[in-house]
Amino acid sequence: MPHSDEVIRAAGLKVTPVRRAIVALFAESLRPLTPRDVHVRLLEQFSRSGLPGVYRNLETLAERGILFRIAGFGQVRRYALCPKPGSGHQHHIICVACGRIDRIDECLYHDGMMVGGYRLLSHTMQFEGVCASCLSETNNGQS
Amino acid sequence: MPHSDEVIRAAGLKVTPVRRAIVALFAESLRPLTPRDVHVRLLEQFSRSGLPGVYRNLETLAERGILFRIAGFGQVRRYALCPKPGSGHQHHIICVACGRIDRIDECLYHDGMMVGGYRLLSHTMQFEGVCASCLSETNNGQS
DNA sequence: ATCTTAAACGGAAAACATTTCCATTTAAGA
DNA sequence: TCTTAAATGGAAATGTTTTCCGTTTAAGAT
Questions:
Q1: Which residue segments constitute the domains of chain B, with CATH numbers given?
Q2: How many other CB atoms are found less than 10 A from the CB of residue B129?
Q3: Which of A10, A44, B17, B137 has its CA 20 to 30 A from that of B88?
Q4: Is the CB of B50 under 7 A from strand D?
Q5: Helix ranges (DSSP H) in A35-141
Q6: pLDDT single digits (tens) B79-93
């Protein structure tokens, strides 16, 4: 796994302490993070971190293919690390029971195909369901 | 096509002038409308219409299956008339060239199926593409 | 080791969409 | 009519995201 600095530098961005910390945050996190999540955690290290800076960095990192921007779950934006930098779009599913969010790797749509008379350029999806873990709990009557 | 009043009454809601106007608005509109769209048009008839009332009514009508709430295109919510009241979810596609939004009737996912280890309960999608009309214009060299 | 400069930053404030609160009005059944 | 729960408008709050601007800083050049 490449060090945060290399990832940032490879994207043509300046390596700053804040940026290093943000990328490290996502590398350690198992779930997508909201700008607020990121800001709260940054404040532990940088007491003067500002929310606008967080937004700017998340968007910049997303533009460069390091992060993926997840929209559509409520009105809060989330970001996740791209498995490989620049590795296309992602779809996510949230468990209505426990709130965990997972990435979905397969997708039934691909850009370029025809959908409803349109030529598809991009698509986003949001799934809600019950994760395997919660499914088995429910089956055990723990609901 | 049932009159607005009947639709509203059938949903167990009071028939008010504002509500009648809102349903009529959607019945006449070819495209999904934002709360702001609706508010602006209501102001033509009801000079004292308030945005909170619009939001309330749109949500109420959506809960009762008369309207469908479309999220995920930017951070602006839209609503469209359900073809048949209560007729499940819808997906929409926006043309990046001309901005028109159409409903997509077929869908490759259905709730209940397994997706990524989850049992799917609901899903939303947003598609971007080029509509047939803009596709043909492009092909004619009108770029 | 400095210099220089564009990029990055923090902070305040603005911009929006959406929601809450509350007092008033109104539709609909009695 | 009367009564009442539902619906409404307006002001204000909430929460997210963006803009603006002056200051700081990383990074390549000197």
A1: 1-83 (1.10.10.10), 89-143 (3.30.1490.190)
A2: 26
A3: B17
A4: yes
A5: 35-45, 51-63, 132-139
A6: 999 987 667 788 999
